[in-house]
Recover the amino acids of this structure.
């Protein structure tokens, strides 16, 4: 049986792992440095992480170059799937990251600006390499809107519609991040996660809001997500990846132990 | 020396590093004549069947791989490198011909309610050929990493080394004589994958 995945996410700024408290604060300098990305990746590797996401939050060419080296070093030592996101704007950027050792590339604002990038990437590397990450915010009782640029810019797009379009263009996976829940540790947005998961035929990774083991179980069961992604609870050692998997297994959720 | 065929496949580097990790002497090769002296050959792969087969053909690596296999030395195909050993694929109205080493074609998972395609993630292998040297020290039911929408359907079921269930049961790896091939990615399957690669490298010694 296919296991549900537990995925630690590392926000990387200039080659170092950081964690902003909420969206947009990274740029405001409110970053908390939590270490070397490769060292952390190795730690999660040992804990039994199913996959790792490296997210580049540096907005400079220099940061980009250091990201390639982070991926190369991680791929040399962690024999598990790696996804890289942040600042990927062209098929060439995707190629660079895949060549460096990433298995998937995640695009967000660039896909919104140029939806055809999804199709180009899928045609060149296969859908399985193209992850579309969506930042969604609840704007009305029954409407979630897509935001771009790290959650700062409203796009007017409906999150479910955009997810469907991204998949139609060739996205092989959707990462859904709830802007409202991100960084709050108050739990995932179960409603929108489930809605998107039931609307698309590709795996959905739930992100944003993980604060407890119950939250993880809830988004996999009620939210129908295929994987959970979390950053802070792993970084600060609240739980290990192993703790999460053990808990999920007790709830009869299939995980790789 | 183990020759790793380089035709710009996405997982080349990962396979190379994993082979190095288990102590192999790996050489990344792009020219057909470079594989003649290899003790074993690994054909990596990720992405689309046609792209893979066409790229191999362009570099004359397809024929070279075929010739190499005839010598009886160990050969390992991974993911699309597994699919390429079959006759053809139904992916995107594919028209490229595979190696045809195994009879059968590459098919897509059947659409079913709630079944996500591609299959992305860790799934279990049931070892159907306990005598397959690739699975020495690996337990049936172990989890390995898959990323794919297509898989080969071998005509001869005796070649099936492991089976995996995802909506339906499919051949997640095959083995015949000196040819081994896996739909999953041993280079991404942590300790289980490294053990498998170690077993393969051991065959080349």
């Amino acid at each position: 049986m296919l296991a549900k995945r537990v995925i630690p996410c590392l926000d990387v700024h200039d080659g170092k792992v950081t964690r902003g408290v909420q969206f947009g604060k990274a740029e405001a300098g409110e970053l908390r440095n939590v270490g070397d990305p490769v060292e952390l990746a190795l730690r999660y590797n040992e804990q039994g992480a199913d996959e790792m996401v490296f997210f580049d939050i540096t907005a400079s060419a220099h940061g980009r170059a250091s990201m390639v080296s982070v991926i190369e070093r991680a791929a040399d030592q962690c024999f598990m799937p790696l996804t890289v996101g942040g600042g990927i704007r062209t098929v060439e950027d995707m190629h660079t990251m895949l060549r460096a050792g990433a298995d998937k590339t995640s695009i967000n604002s660039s896909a919104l600006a140029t939806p055809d990038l999804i199709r180009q990437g899928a045609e060149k590397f296969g859908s399985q390499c193209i992850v579309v990450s969506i930042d969604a915010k609840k704007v009305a009782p029954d409407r979630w809107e897509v935001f771009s640029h790290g959650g700062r810019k409203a796009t007017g797009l409906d999150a479910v519609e955009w997810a469907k379009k991204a998949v139609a263009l060739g996205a092989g996976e959707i990462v859904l991040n709830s802007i409202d829940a991100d960084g709050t540790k108050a739990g995932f947005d179960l409603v929108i996660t489930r809605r998107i998961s039931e609307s698309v035929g590709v795996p959905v990774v739930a992100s944003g809001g993980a604060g407890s083991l119950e939250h993880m179980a809830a988004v996999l069961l009620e939210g129908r997500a295929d994987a959970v992604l979390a950053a802070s609870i792993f970084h600060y050692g609240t739980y290990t990846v192993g703790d999460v998997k053990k808990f999920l297994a007790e709830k009869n959720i299939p995980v790789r132990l | 020396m183990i020759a790793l065929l380089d035709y710009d496949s996405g997982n080349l580097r990962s396979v190379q590093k994993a082979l190095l990790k288990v102590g192999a002497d790996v050489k990344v090769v792009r020219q057909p004549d470079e594989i003649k002296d290899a003790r074993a050959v690994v054909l990596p792969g990720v992405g689309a069947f046609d792209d893979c087969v066409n790229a191999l053909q362009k570099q004359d690596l397809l024929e070279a791989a075929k010739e190499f296999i005839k010598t009886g030395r160990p050969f390992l195909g991974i993911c699309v490198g597994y699919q390429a050993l079959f006759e053809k694929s139904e992916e995107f109205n594919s028209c490229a011909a595979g190696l045809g080493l195994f009879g059968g074609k590459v098919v897509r998972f059947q659409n079913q309610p709630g079944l996500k395609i591609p299959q992305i993630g860790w799934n279990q292998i049931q070892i159907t050929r306990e005598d397959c040297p690739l699975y020495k020290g690996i337990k049936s039911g172990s989890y390995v990493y898959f990323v794919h929408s297509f898989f080969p359907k071998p005509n001869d079921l005796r070649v099936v080394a492991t089976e995996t269930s995802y909506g339906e049961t499919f051949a997640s790896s095959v083995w015949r004589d000196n040819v081994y091939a896996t739909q999953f990615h041993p280079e991404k399957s942590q300790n289980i994958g490294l053990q498998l690669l170690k077993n393969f490298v051991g065959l080349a010694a």
Summary: Chain A has ten helices and twelve strands. Residues 21-31 of chain A have pLDDT under 50 and may be disordered. The longest strand of chain A covers residues 130-140. Chain A touches chain B at residues 1-5, 45, 50-51, 72, 75-76, 79-81, 98-101, 103, 125-129, 172-173, 201-203, 226-227, 256 (CB under 8 Å).
